[in-house]
Specification:
By secondary structure, this protein is α+β, with helices and mostly antiparallel strands.
Length: 478
């Protein structure tokens, strides 16, 4: 109705907020920053008459709880309801809320669009931003709301990656080397990812477990990471509350842990400061294709044109027919974990049995992880999982029998057929790549994975990603 009038004044006014509000879709500070940039934001059509939507301009926005966009602002003196339904009498607001969302066709441009706001997608955006490449990250829910936020956060390639696969194990060691500096950068940027560089202790309770740990120690000791065997008395000096039944264990001093949700939050914060754009509750419904090239993505509110698209949508990457005609071999793997708290009790480092982990947290709680359910695509918390995890915790530390139960969380990891990440270009297509299939090692491998994918996007050379190529699943020629 008054779009032309209001829009014509926007480019000349600093610190302005422009938002299209209808249904519950709002474009806040991120949107206006893109809109003012030349050739970045092209508003093709807004059907404001049909659903009562209006473009409003006002001062620099302030965050409003419950808004659907990452940055949402209100003009001074405007209530949340009035901002959601401007120029609508209060009595009609409830009626309007029941109407369908506005039809809004918006075309925006970005250097790179990353589908998925988990730790892999956000890490890639951060690495690109450091190189001056503007990435837009689109997340269907909240950043880190999937497996990245439900992770144990263990950075332990020696226990979780197969040394026989040199590329993936090398990626784990590279990521381990990158984490201290990355954590420092992110903390200096404003959000501490709570990286703890205190080592990992894996313990054995049976002779067979002792034999397995000592066999692994043969090759682990050759890595120069200070890995060493500890007898039971030595372990009790390190962790006095550990179970009397243990026989010994291996301590790996260079490994550690990080808070998965805090890591994602820190990446979003730091990358935003470098020019990246992050949008939550923005589900990508498909790809924009021209011939054999991917030229952008579609969302419920419009399209994003870009030079390159990265599919990093976790288990949603494997939804048949969502992205390209051929199937992408990503499958869901559900995991659950719990949080406990016992005043005065906190292990010095993550402690692992052959059943699971007890991981100390910065807020003095104890994270116990994790279950594994192949093919499960839900985030229900189950009684059986809680029972398993409590047994793991008490088996390691009997004193936790009277610990307080703080909460539980579930996430769905993206698995691959061979347990190795799938990264790099998609054969037969230009302008698109995949970064997925990290399964339980997503956080662990995120710095190195982002480094490789960002390098490929920058120089177009896929050779460093050959070991992770989706082509390894091609049927052999007959």
């Amino acid at each position: 109705r008054d779009f032309g009038k209001r829009f014509s004044y926007i480019p000349g006014i600093p610190n302005v907020h422009l938002a299209y509000v209808a249904g519950r879709h709002t474009l806040g500070r991120t949107g206006i920053r893109s809109m003012i940039s030349p050739n970045v934001f092209d508003l093709k059509r807004v059907d404001s008459a049909r659903h009562g939507g209006t473009l409003i301009a006002g001062p620099r926005p302030q965050t409003v709880a419950g808004a659907s966009a990452l940055y949402t602002g209100l003009s001074q003196g405007v209530t949340a309801e009035q901002a959601e339904w401007p120029n609508v009498p209060t009595g009609q607001i409830d009626q309007n809320r029941r109407m369908a969302g506005a039809e809004i066709l918006i075309s925006k441009n970005a250097d790179v669009v990353i589908v998925g706001g988990g730790v892999i997608g956000c890490s890639i955006a951060y690495q690109l931003a450091k190189q001056g490449i503007r990435a837009t990250v689109l997340e269907r829910g909240r950043f880190g709301s999937g497996a990245s936020g439900a992770t144990a956060g263990v950075i332990g390639p020696l226990w979780h990656l197969d040394p026989a696969h040199k590329a993936v194990f090398g990626l784990g060691i590279r990521s381990l080397d990158l984490f201290p500096l990355l954590a420092s950068e992110l903390a200096e940027g404003g959000v501490d990812p709570e990286f703890q560089h205190r080592g990992i202790l894996k313990v054995a309770f049976t002779p067979a477990q002792v034999d397995e740990l000592k066999r692994n120690l043969t090759w682990q000791g050759e890595l120069g990471l200070g890995v060493r065997w500890l007898d039971a008395p030595e372990i009790r000096e390190l962790e006095p509350e550990v179970s009397d039944g243990l026989l010994g264990g291996v301590f790996s001093p260079r490994e550690g842990c990080v808070n998965g949700q805090r890591l994602v939050d820190a990446l979003v914060h730091a990358a935003t400061g470098l020019g990246a754009v992050f949008l939550e509750e923005t589900e990508v419904t498909g790809l924009e294709i021209s011939g054999q090239s991917v030229v952008g993505v579609r969302t419920l509110t419009g399209s994003y044109q870009c030079g390159h698209t990265v599919l990093a949508a976790g288990p949603w990457t494997g939804i048949p027919g969502r992205w390209l005609p051929q199937a992408l071999p990503i499958s869901p793997v559900k995991g659950q974990r719990i949080l406990l708290r016992k005043p005065g009790f906190l292990p010095k480092c993550p402690v692992r049995s052959f059943e699971g982990y007890v991981v100390p947290q910065a807020d003095s709680s104890l994270l116990v992880a994790a279950t594994r359910e192949e093919g499960a695509f839900d985030v229900r918390i189950t009684v059986d999982a809680i029972r398993q995890l409590l047994a793991t915790a008490i088996g390691l530390f009997p004193a936790l029998e009277d610990a307080s139960f703080v909460g539980a969380r579930a996430g769905v990891r993206p698995g691959s057929p061979d347990g190795i990440p799938i990264m790099g270009p998609l054969p037969g297509w230009d302008g698109v790549s995949i970064a997925c299939g990290h399964d339980h090692a997503g956080v662990m491998l995120s710095p190195g994975s982002a480094e490789l994918v960002a390098s490929y996007i920058l120089d177009g050379d896929p050779r460093s990603l050959e070991a992770f190529s989706i082509s390894r699943f091609d049927a052999p020629a007959s």
